[in-house]
Amino acid sequence: MTGFAFDILSTDKAARRGRVTTAHGTFETPAFMATATAATVKGMLPDAVRAAGAELAIANTYHLMLRPTAERVARLGGLHAFMDWPGPIVTDSGGFQVMSLAKLRVIDERKGAVFRSHLDGSLHELSPERSMQIQHLLDSDIAMCFDECTPHPATPEQAAVSMRMSMRWAERCKTAFKPREGYALFGINQGSTYPHLRLESAAALAALELDGYGIGGLAVGEGQEVMFATLDETVPALKASIPRYLMGVGRPDDIVGAVRRGVDMFDCVMPTRSGRTGQAFTRRGTVNIRNARHLDDRRALDSECGCLACTRYSRAYLHHLFRGEEMLGPMLLTAHNMQYYQDLMRGLRGAIEQGKLDDFAAAFHEAQGRGDVEAGI
Amino acid sequence: MTGFAFDILSTDKAARRGRVTTAHGTFETPAFMATATAATVKGMLPDAVRAAGAELAIANTYHLMLRPTAERVARLGGLHAFMDWPGPIVTDSGGFQVMSLAKLRVIDERKGAVFRSHLDGSLHELSPERSMQIQHLLDSDIAMCFDECTPHPATPEQAAVSMRMSMRWAERCKTAFKPREGYALFGINQGSTYPHLRLESAAALAALELDGYGIGGLAVGEGQEVMFATLDETVPALKASIPRYLMGVGRPDDIVGAVRRGVDMFDCVMPTRSGRTGQAFTRRGTVNIRNARHLDDRRALDSECGCLACTRYSRAYLHHLFRGEEMLGPMLLTAHNMQYYQDLMRGLRGAIEQGKLDDFAAAFHEAQGRGDVEAGI
One digit per residue, pLDDT tens: chain A, 377 residues? Predict the structure, then answer.
């Protein structure tokens, strides 16, 4: 019983252009997911998210188990109906958020994480088995194994202990996961920045015959160079036939570099979170629309972008909205950043199809370096 | 030179079904304006505002003179281009906001209002002439005369002094207003709740040959009964051939009552502001979506409404969004309330056309009284 499929349509060196089939439809890879942590893409209607080109959303076990609870989402028909996202949904397992958000957490190999909610201090447990149950209740198309996100920096010894526990948890997740047609379980490769641990983790996951790989524990402060070096060691050790998902990454140049190294899927709060604070990603680099230099700026945010913020409004208007703390400011910049990221992914997919990813990457870096101020007002 | 026109298409007793033509297109009356105080309808894209049925937006002299300034809006091509609203725009004159928002204000008949900005304490003057200039710079289709909003309660003496100054200011506005094809200047009827003052004000405005009437100084705490009684005395004294705009009104039942009394235009922050705090207007009365009774509520907010909030989501989901302070909650409830108000206006217009406004009003009140909780979960 599977129905879940990953078809590689073309390759360009290590990079892959693919298509993933799930119980709730397909998505093209390399893919950037729409972040819908609490069952909503912050500041955007689902129709607009889809119109920007996103086909895959990611929601979060930790957030949804606390509110509105997984059982309630299940009673209300599952996450797809609840949030009006009929397409494929990934759910993160909650491991990362337990470490970054929960209070007074205790990690116990048998029980998993015992922690207090950051919302109301209530006590909760999240084990590999419970994480699988929650992701099942949410009706996630792609469930992630429950893991411990190894802190950075970690000594090789600390990283080994943490990774090996996550691998034993992955085995428990595999046992607890209920196979259903079109639903998938991804393992999460760990091992900090140590190649030998990453390879050990890759071997452990390969033995479990999972449907895809998360690559976890990166973009946690190690820097892009170390992240890319870790990918250079890790990715070749992963089975080529299943998708690779670099979790929590990243900036546009992180994504371009990771796609060139064979990564297929990405998620990151950056486009939506930055949008809410007035930071826009453009083809010439980032723009802070709150900056007073935009007071009388008649230009579009990004003249090559087709989003509403860029086709209907001046930078002066967007600046006005942020100065006045008007909701439409975050709404428009979120929509723009979503469009920018999806355009980037579309560009990467097209470049792989044409075998021109190197040229695409060179043009991308050249344009980013050109900067915004010089763009000829 | 006019081009501005008000055509009465049909009547039902005192109520009128009309069409107003401006330099930026037409709108059907009775009309409820989309509130765009600071050149944005809070939480809604203009396309969605139009799709809900709103044809007319109202922006504000006081807010826009402070930020981004009228001169800047003019340099950027005027309000229609600035905020992507190609349709008709009304601008309030700033008189009301000087009274309700500005600090350390001094009213001087010659100078107008001298006040400090509520944003940064900077000193400003707003005279009848300057208000006209600002509304011209904004490129408002319908400018409002600069007036003093008489406080409530006021003695007959206080109300008379205030109203007579506003009438002298209206004369100065008429002199300062630059006539342009399709652009209009409305006077504002004042006089508190005193019929003889309302009639004196009506006569003063009639002599000025303005393009429409605002009815000001109501919905300031006098209660619906007194407001309707004041309308009963005032409206018959207004010229029938030009539009009547009841400023800052109101709740759905206020609007139904005022339309029956011959009012043509309305504006109120209530649908958008209430939407942001979780209050929804429905055909069975108001619903507070934050209430815990909606935790597992699978029903639509209003089963007869065609907006996205009602057709795509359960109350349980909307409740979840508000509990989590997610932007999508205010966005969806604002869109719903906008749709509700525009549907109400459409219903009123249709009822007048058919000569069935009494029946419409009776059915409206009956449904509102039915309440929401009993609506058969």
Answer: 579 999 999 999 999 999 999 999 999 999 999 999 999 999 999 999 999 999 999 999 999 999 999 999 999 999 999 999 999 999 999 989 998 888 889 999 999 999 999 999 999 999 999 999 999 999 999 999 999 989 899 999 999 999 999 999 999 999 999 999 999 999 999 999 999 999 999 999 999 999 999 999 999 999 999 999 999 999 999 999 999 999 999 999 999 999 999 999 999 999 999 999 999 999 999 999 999 999 999 999 999 999 999 999 999 999 999 999 999 999 999 999 999 999 999 999 999 999 999 999 999 999 998 887 644 43
Strands of the sheet containing B31-32, edge to edge, are: B31-32, B265-266, B244-246, B212-215, B184-189, B142-144, B89-92, B57-60, B34-35
Domain interval for residue A205: 5-267
Q: Which residues of B touch A84 (CB under 8 A)?
A: 312-313
A267 is known as an active-site residue: yes
Q: pTM for this structure?
A: 0.97
Domain with residue B48: its CATH number is 3.20.20.105
Set of chain A residues whose Cβ sits within 8 Å of the Cβ of B47:
308
Residue B375 within a domain: no
* Residue B213: strand pairing partners: B187, B244
Alpha-carbon distance values, B203 to A304, B49, B191, B198, B237 (Å): 57, 37, 12, 9, 8
User: CB B72 to CB A312 under 8 A?
Assistant: no
Question: Does the N-terminal peptide bond of residue A46 adopt cis geometry, omega within 30 degrees of 0?
Answer: no
- For A327, the closest of B312, B323, B330 (CB atoms) is B330
**Measured in Å, how far apart are chain B's first and last C-alpha atoms?**
59
Of the three residues B223, B252, B268, the one that is the final residue of a domain is B268
